[in-house]
Every structure is written in C-alpha cells, then in structure tokens.
Amino acid sequence: LSLKALATDQLNGSFPKLSCIVDTTNSISTDLISRPLNNPAWAVYKVLKDANISDENINISKFETWATYCNTNNLTVNLYIDSSVELQNILNMISVLGRAIIIQFGAVFTPVLDIASSIPTQGFIFTSANMIDSSFNMSLIPYENRANIIETTYYDKDDDYKPKTITLSSDDYNSSSIDNKSSIKLYGCTDKTNAQNYTKFLLNKNKYISKTISFIASTDSIVCTIGDIIKVGVKYFTNTICEGRVQEYNSSTKTITLDNTISLEQNETYQIDYRISSSDEIISHTFTSNTLQ
Q1: Which of 28, 34, 121, 154 is close enough to 195 for a disulfide, judged by CB 3.0 to 4.6 Å?
Q2: Any alpha helices (H) in 118-219, and if so which ranges?
Q3: Is 53 exposed, middle or buried (CB count within 10 Å of its CB: 0-12, 13-18, 19+)?
Q4: Cα–Cα distance, 41 to 88 (Å, whole number)
Q5: What is the pLDDT of residue 124?
Q6: DSSP tag of 201
C-alpha cells in the first residue's frame, strides 16, 4: 500500500492515518485444485509460497490432512499482513487458529496438530528398559499456576472488524476460586464462536494437563518426532506395576516371560503392553489374574 499526496501544512510532518478495504484473491491452487485461503492450512501454505518455499520443502499431505480438520471444525482465518513480520511469527499467528504449529523438519515445513488422537498401532513404548538410567523426571503443574479465567480478543466480522473481548472461566470455577487471569489476542479470528471454542480449548488444557515428564532415550527415540503419541511406563509413577523387557515368548503356548517377577491381586483386571521390535507394533492384552504370580 502506498500513498501519493501533496506535502502541505496539514501533514505537519506526521504520517496520515489510513484505512482501506483490501480485496485479494480468496484461493490458491495446488495440483490444479483451488484451495480456499480462509482455511488456516492453505493460508499458511500461501505464506510459505510467498516466501519462495518450494513444494518439495512443504509436506503437502500433512497440509491436506490439516485442511480437512479445519473444514470439519469450521476453523477459519481472515487476515491481511500489512507490515514487515518475521516468517515464523506469521506462521504462528495463522496456525494457532487451526489448532496447529508449524515445525521445520530439516528443510521441510510440516504442520503438527494439537488435537485428540488415539495411540497408533505402530508406535513407541518407553520404560526403564530403553531409557537412560536416572533420566526420567516427572513435574507436577501446580493448580495455582494455571489460568482459570481467559480473556480473548478477536476482530468481529459482524461489527466492522472491531476488536472485541470475551471472558470465559473454567467449568470448575466458583465464587471461592482464586482468580488467575490470562489474556490472548487472536489476530485473524473474526468469528465469535471460533474465539469462544479456542478459549474453552485453552481452559481445558489448563484443567486436564496436570503433569509433564522428561527422559533421555537412545536409539528407540531416533524416529520419534514432535507430535507423536507415545506410551510411557515407569514403575510407581505412571500407574505401572511392572516395566522392563520381554525375556521370552513361547509361540506354541502363547505365553511371554518378563525379565522380573511381579505380584498380582486375585481377580483384578490388568493390561499388558509390549512392542514388537521388528515392526514397532504395540500389542495390548487385558486379562484378569487368577494367580498371585
């Protein structure tokens, strides 16, 4: 945007405030298919293309999966960048509206979705058997450090895109609760429902994510990437009574022998998970104990 004007005393050495309505193309093409730019996934894709990122450095299949999720959940973006901003800042600004972050794996830009998912059949189990000794650490997140009230600013399309603020509290908030407020701005969010849903999403994360863990693993962790769902079993810490390696598997009797002895309570139901090393397939069996060994 540029302005050509005659310098007069009215300017008085200051830059005039401008407002305008910007009309631009509302779609971008990939593989000869038109993609809507109000979808956060394709908006991010356009930003990457405008930054001269080639398709070979963009994980298109992941973007398509992300775009489908945005369509299914009516997640949209309405944003015009009118100032110089770092590429990663723009990516963060848009991707948050689609419940994702953009990660660069090597040279390839890939979206990682922050959504509920099932543990994959082919996945990862980490126990003391494949963790570095004494590297496991669990940290509890104090409730008093979690926001139970969030103020979210969005830009209402039904009121000339003026900034509006909504305030929501967690569902367990009551008159005796101590207020712990947090404020966010959703640039590009012009829909009140989307702003409300994202605020509820953040409040639920604050409510249900109560602990974090960290550990160091060697070769088993090489193929893990950001966003992968993993199983972690550490005795006494993760509702686990036994962890380690399978010592022996008898295919004829279909029994497995563990590398340590455990005690089971009579008639209690247990689940055992183990990973096939050749395929990374996770096998789960539920059983009721009829023996104390």
Answers
A1: 154
A2: 192-208
A3: middle
A4: 15
A5: 82
A6: H
In order of 29, 119, 148, the CA distances from 223 in angstroms are 32, 16, 37
For position 292, what pLDDT does the model report? 42
- So what's the pLDDT on residue 140? 87
H or E element at residue 166: strand 162-169
Q: How far is CA 36 from CA 21, 31, 40, 58, 251, in A?
A: 19, 14, 9, 18, 54
**Contact by Cβ (8 Å): 104, 58:** no
State the CB neighbour count (10 A cutoff) for residue 131: 19
pLDDT of residue 122: 67
Instruction: State the burial class of residue 162 (Cβ atoms within 10 Å of its Cβ: 0-12, 13-18, 19+).
Output: exposed
The pLDDT score that the predictor gives to residue 53 is 95
> Cα(241)–Cα(233) distance, rounded to whole angstroms?
9
The answer to whether the Cα torsion of 249, 251, 253, 254 is positive or negative is positive
Q: What is the reported pLDDT for 94?
A: 97
Q: Indicate the angle between helix axes 60-72 and 40-50, nearest 10 degrees.
A: 140
Give every residue of the chain whose pLDDT is below 50, as ranges. Answer: 292-293
Which residue has 């005796």 as its token pair? 176
- The C-alpha atoms of residue 39 and residue 26 are separated, in whole angstroms, by 10
In this structure, the strands spanning 137-140 and 108-113 are unpaired
> Residues near 232 by Cβ (< 8 Å), separated by ≥ 6?
125, 126, 127, 213, 215, 238
241: left (phi over 0), alpha (psi -120 to 50) or beta: alpha
Give the whole-angstrom CA distance, residue 95 versus residue 83: 18
